[in-house]
Write a structure and sequence with these properties.
two-stranded antiparallel ribbon, alpha+beta
């Protein structure tokens, strides 16, 4: 008995399991600043042709998740009234230098100030201790109002925080911690002084709970359907083997 149906349904089980995992990750990050939701794209697999009584018949071999697409539409901006919070609008990103020495990019503009010791200058960092970079790729020393040691010059700081863009932001690699990494597909980062940014705001997650819940229902039903197809094909094969014996 042919196992094409079994393997076709099994490919559906694996593809829709992956789609559910992607959707679950979107839902888990519904409150993650600057998070960009992903969408699975499906593609059919190879086809084979069989000559059946002088008529050629094509048999498909299932489905796979071809790729995931990041949804880069502008998310809602939340007013925080905090001078160290920034939102890079549209396809802009902030650049950070990690403690390991890597330059990564992020949409999360919730920043803090830190210094290495009592004589070192205060610098702008994110929650992971990575240094925020200016338009020239340098670490930002926090400016203070003249004559004070604790009143941040918010306007001057806003001018210093760099915004970077990519020729193809959809090609960026997501590497965790709200970080993106440039690659050959995205092209190199370019400092863009014309890119919009807003101080006192944070960009919310692009996860749309209603849309994601509808996807959960859709993918769950497709997953269950393919599971049932696998079970049915397995039962039919058992019946055929019993008849042969």
């Amino acid at each position: 008995m042919s196992k094409i149906g079994y393997h076709t349904a099994a490919s559906g089980v694996m593809a829709y399991q992956m789609a559910l995992d992607i959707t679950a990750n979107n839902m888990a990050n519904v409150n993650t600043n600057g998070f960009k939701a992903s969408r699975p794209s499906f593609a059919d697999l190879l086809y084979t042709e069989r000559n059946n009584e002088n008529e050629e018949t094509q048999f498909g071999h299932g489905v796979r998740v071809q790729k995931t697409d990041m949804m880069f539409e502008q998310s809602i901006l939340r007013n925080t009234n905090r001078e160290l919070d920034f939102a890079a609008l549209d396809e802009g990103f902030f650049a950070v230098l990690t403690p390991e020495g890597n330059i990564n990019y992020t949409k999360d503009g919730a920043f803090y100030i830190s210094r290495q010791d009592e004589v070192s200058p205060w610098e702008l960092v994110n929650e992971y201790g990575a240094y925020v970079l200016d338009y020239e790729g340098n670490r930002i020393q926090v400016p203070f109002v003249e004559g004070t040691d604790n009143d941040i010059d918010a306007h001057a700081l806003a001018q210093m925080v760099g915004v970077y863009t990519f020729e193809n932001p959809y090609g960026l690699d997501q590497i965790g911690n709200n970080y993106f990494q440039a690659n050959a597909s995205s092209g190199p980062a370019a400092a863009n002084t014309n890119a919009d940014k807003k101080q006192y705001y944070l960009e919310a997650s692009s996860t749309n709970v209603a849309n994601e819940m509808s996807k959960v229902i859709e993918f769950q039903r497709a997953f269950q359907l393919n599971i049932n197809m696998v079970k049915t094909h397995d039962q039919l094969e058992s019946i055929v083997n019993n008849l042969r014996n």
